[in-house]
Amino acid sequence: MRIGVLTGGGDCPGLNAVIRAVVRKGVGTYGHEFVGFRDGWKGPLEGITRPLGIPEVRGILPRGGTILGSSRTNPFKIEGGVERIKQNLADMGVDALVAIGGEDTLGVATKLTELGVNVVGVPKTIDNDLGATDFTFGFDTAVNIAMEAIDRLHTTAESHHRTVVVEVMGRHAGWIALHAGLAGGANVILLPEQKFDLDKVVEHVETRFQTNYSPIIVISEGAMPTDGDMITLNGELDAFGHVRLGGIGNWLADQLEKRTGKEARAVVLGHTQRGGTPTAFDRVLATRFGLHAIDAVHEGDFGKMVALRSTEIVRVPLADATRELKTVPPHRYAEAEAFFG
Ligand code: F6P
């Protein structure tokens, strides 16, 4: 079989580990041939490829990013996009695709499957918000990066008797904030799932100063105050209709400085959370996803996505990938509240 591989959406530590596993087992065990499509759905849409064999995947396991490049191209938003993809795949003799991506990339994969394209999906997102899988790779790395940053911010905050607000990624799901905040000993954690009461946050900050410690607040980029909305960088939408979030950390630091009379600083971790080498957990999960994805392709089990259920990798319908956004349940947030203030 000749198999195309692509990575779409925001990059994520572990993408290269998936690509390597797919190719190593695909060539070594099954004798398939591969073609790398560049920059997500833009690759098959415009017929942009790169060679993808064993030599190309050597040494990429620990590397962040993706050797294939990524984009947020949506072929369903482009006139004749789907037909062009089908034609390009036919012209190149590509029998099947492995699409590695999040909600948007897998959403396109689901629709293409319904239109007769052979696709197997691999879930990816540092936000860990895909309902069909217990964990996505990249999440553990992002949490560790944020935790290390929080550890460092504790000492500088103490030295200057300041509040530090740490803004982490998480559009609709606060998993990164919850886990990094718990692991880093944050005094308040604020998530998109639950609007926050600014007066309560001020109270926690003041209690913390009274006990001679400096408060660290971890906040998801998508968190909102009770009477406010998500803060966006500009009004522009990407091809999947997402706005660019950012700014809630600075807004909160400003409010806290005014209300407590103590200096406050905001640190926006941004894309640092997505860059660089994956943790061991993410390398192993990504590798297992890759191995199981190529098994599915080899068996002709298309329209499926690999997923982690407990400790096992299973196959679920691709449509399940986008069916349910996995948000932080109230009882998980309640656990963290024991440490607030
Ligand atoms: O989807 C993952 C994510 O990290 C979100 O948390 C964040 O809002 C988004 O990507 C930002 O990505 P970019 O700047 O690449 O558009």
TrEMBL record:
<comment type="function">
    <text>Catalyzes the phosphorylation of D-fructose 6-phosphate, the first committing step of glycolysis. Uses inorganic phosphate (PPi) as phosphoryl donor instead of ATP like common ATP-dependent phosphofructokinases (ATP-PFKs), which renders the reaction reversible, and can thus function both in glycolysis and gluconeogenesis. Consistently, PPi-PFK can replace the enzymes of both the forward (ATP-PFK) and reverse (fructose-bisphosphatase (FBPase)) reactions.</text>
</comment>
<feature type="binding site" description="in other chain">
    <location>
        <position position="221"/>
    </location>
    <ligand>
        <name>substrate</name>
    </ligand>
</feature>
<comment type="subunit">
    <text>Homodimer or homotetramer.</text>
</comment>
<dbReference type="GO" id="GO:0030388">
    <property type="term" value="P:fructose 1,6-bisphosphate metabolic process"/>
</dbReference>
<keyword id="KW-0418">Kinase</keyword>
<dbReference type="GO" id="GO:0005945">
    <property type="term" value="C:6-phosphofructokinase complex"/>
</dbReference>
<dbReference type="InterPro" id="IPR015912">
    <property type="entry name" value="Phosphofructokinase_CS"/>
</dbReference>
<protein>
    <recommendedName>
        <fullName>Pyrophosphate--fructose 6-phosphate 1-phosphotransferase</fullName>
        <ecNumber>2.7.1.90</ecNumber>
    </recommendedName>
</protein>
<feature type="binding site">
    <location>
        <position position="265"/>
    </location>
    <ligand>
        <name>substrate</name>
    </ligand>
</feature>
<comment type="pathway">
    <text>Carbohydrate degradation; glycolysis; D-glyceraldehyde 3-phosphate and glycerone phosphate from D-glucose: step 3/4.</text>
</comment>
<keyword id="KW-0460">Magnesium</keyword>
<dbReference type="Pfam" id="PF00365">
    <property type="entry name" value="PFK"/>
</dbReference>
<feature type="binding site">
    <location>
        <position position="162"/>
    </location>
    <ligand>
        <name>substrate</name>
    </ligand>
</feature>
<dbReference type="InterPro" id="IPR035966">
    <property type="entry name" value="PKF_sf"/>
</dbReference>
<dbReference type="InterPro" id="IPR000023">
    <property type="entry name" value="Phosphofructokinase_dom"/>
</dbReference>
<feature type="site" description="Important for catalytic activity and substrate specificity; stabilizes the transition state when the phosphoryl donor is PPi; prevents ATP from binding by mimicking the alpha-phosphate group of ATP">
    <location>
        <position position="104"/>
    </location>
</feature>
<dbReference type="GO" id="GO:0016208">
    <property type="term" value="F:AMP binding"/>
</dbReference>
<keyword id="KW-0479">Metal-binding</keyword>
<dbReference type="GO" id="GO:0061621">
    <property type="term" value="P:canonical glycolysis"/>
</dbReference>
<dbReference type="GO" id="GO:0042802">
    <property type="term" value="F:identical protein binding"/>
</dbReference>
<dbReference type="GO" id="GO:0046872">
    <property type="term" value="F:metal ion binding"/>
</dbReference>
<feature type="binding site">
    <location>
        <position position="103"/>
    </location>
    <ligand>
        <name>Mg(2+)</name>
    </ligand>
</feature>
<dbReference type="GO" id="GO:0003872">
    <property type="term" value="F:6-phosphofructokinase activity"/>
</dbReference>
<dbReference type="GO" id="GO:0070095">
    <property type="term" value="F:fructose-6-phosphate binding"/>
</dbReference>
<dbReference type="InterPro" id="IPR022953">
    <property type="entry name" value="ATP_PFK"/>
</dbReference>
<feature type="site" description="Important for catalytic activity; stabilizes the transition state when the phosphoryl donor is PPi">
    <location>
        <position position="124"/>
    </location>
</feature>
<feature type="binding site" description="in other chain">
    <location>
        <begin position="169"/>
        <end position="171"/>
    </location>
    <ligand>
        <name>substrate</name>
    </ligand>
</feature>
<dbReference type="GO" id="GO:0048029">
    <property type="term" value="F:monosaccharide binding"/>
</dbReference>
<feature type="active site" description="Proton acceptor">
    <location>
        <position position="127"/>
    </location>
</feature>
<keyword id="KW-0963">Cytoplasm</keyword>
<keyword id="KW-0324">Glycolysis</keyword>
<feature type="binding site" description="in other chain">
    <location>
        <begin position="271"/>
        <end position="274"/>
    </location>
    <ligand>
        <name>substrate</name>
    </ligand>
</feature>
<dbReference type="GO" id="GO:0006002">
    <property type="term" value="P:fructose 6-phosphate metabolic process"/>
</dbReference>
<dbReference type="GO" id="GO:0047334">
    <property type="term" value="F:diphosphate-fructose-6-phosphate 1-phosphotransferase activity"/>
</dbReference>
<feature type="domain" description="Phosphofructokinase">
    <location>
        <begin position="2"/>
        <end position="297"/>
    </location>
</feature>
<feature type="binding site">
    <location>
        <position position="10"/>
    </location>
    <ligand>
        <name>diphosphate</name>
    </ligand>
</feature>
<comment type="similarity">
    <text>Belongs to the phosphofructokinase type A (PFKA) family. Mixed-substrate PFK group III subfamily.</text>
</comment>
<dbReference type="GO" id="GO:0005524">
    <property type="term" value="F:ATP binding"/>
</dbReference>
<dbReference type="InterPro" id="IPR012829">
    <property type="entry name" value="Phosphofructokinase_III"/>
</dbReference>
<keyword id="KW-0808">Transferase</keyword>
<dbReference type="InterPro" id="IPR012003">
    <property type="entry name" value="ATP_PFK_prok-type"/>
</dbReference>
<feature type="binding site" description="in other chain">
    <location>
        <begin position="125"/>
        <end position="127"/>
    </location>
    <ligand>
        <name>substrate</name>
    </ligand>
</feature>
